[in-house]
Design goal:
By secondary structure, this protein is mostly helical. Helices cover 64% and strands 0% of the residues. The protein has ten helices and no strands.
């Protein structure tokens, strides 16, 4: 069974806002066994998967990491097309489409939350940070395609030395200062609760929760390899 199962099982419990002990009791197993499932130490049988799907109200495909849709629906055909290009142009692989949905949905949630906060400096800094990240990824592709880097105002030497990365760090600093200012002004921050990350859109909440979990997992592995 893939590691997606253990990660998703743990994430669903956290979203539900229940302790491992309570979830284990309601699923009819011991806390120790649930811990083993959530940490990928042991693999459950089909009976447990069925119970977990009913308990968390998700499909088996979602629990097993085969789809990002909780009801098990596969990506619709329209989702494989980029409406900004010529109609009917198929975009990349399924994996690329899923990753795009994760990033686009999570960015949408971020700016929905920042829009409610209403601070221009914070919104601008967040956009600058994400734009710089996209700039770096796309410029590397541009370079490998043989493109003339004179197209960019930032010289290739400065780019390689980390100038754009430095701008990202400055954007993050402006973002944090802006949030501090909002706190000082007693701004009302959206409440992030279990299963809801500040907006009333399940798809956006689901994507953001998955991004949180994915990054947490990768960071945990980095620390384990120290």
């Amino acid at each position: 069974m893939t590691t997606d199962f253990s990660r998703t099982l743990s994430l669903l419990r956290q979203e539900k806002g229940v302790s491992q002990r309570k979830a284990a009791s309601e699923l009819g197993i011991s806390q120790a066994l649930l811990s083993h499932y959530e940490n990928g130490i042991r693999e459950p049988g089909l009976a447990f998967v069925v119970k977990a799907c009913s308990y968390y109200h998700v499909s088996a495909d979602y629990l097993l990491g085969r789809t990002l849709s909780r009801d098990g629906a596969m990506i619709d055909a329209d989702g494989l097309y980029d409406s900004s290009l010529e109609k009917g142009t198929l975009k990349g692989s399924i994996l690329a489409t899923l990753q795009k949905k994760l990033v686009v949905n999570t960015a949408s949630l971020l700016f929905n939350v920042l829009g409610k906060l209403g601070d221009r400096a914070v919104i601008t800094a967040a956009g600058d940070y994400l734009n710089a990240a996209l700039y770096q990824l796309l410029r590397q592709i541009f370079r490998r395609s043989g493109g003339n880097e004179d197209y960019f105002s930032v010289a290739s030497t400065d780019f390689d030395a980390g100038l754009v990365s430095a701008e990202m760090e400055m954007s993050l600093m402006r973002y944090l200062r802006g949030l501090d200012h909002c706190s000082d002004e007693d701004a009302e921050f959206p409440t992030f609760e279990s299963g809801s990350l500040g907006v009333d859109d399940p798809a956006l909440n689901q994507s953001a929760a998955q991004v949180f979990h994915n990054v947490d997992d990768k960071c945990r592995k980095l620390l384990e390899n120290e």
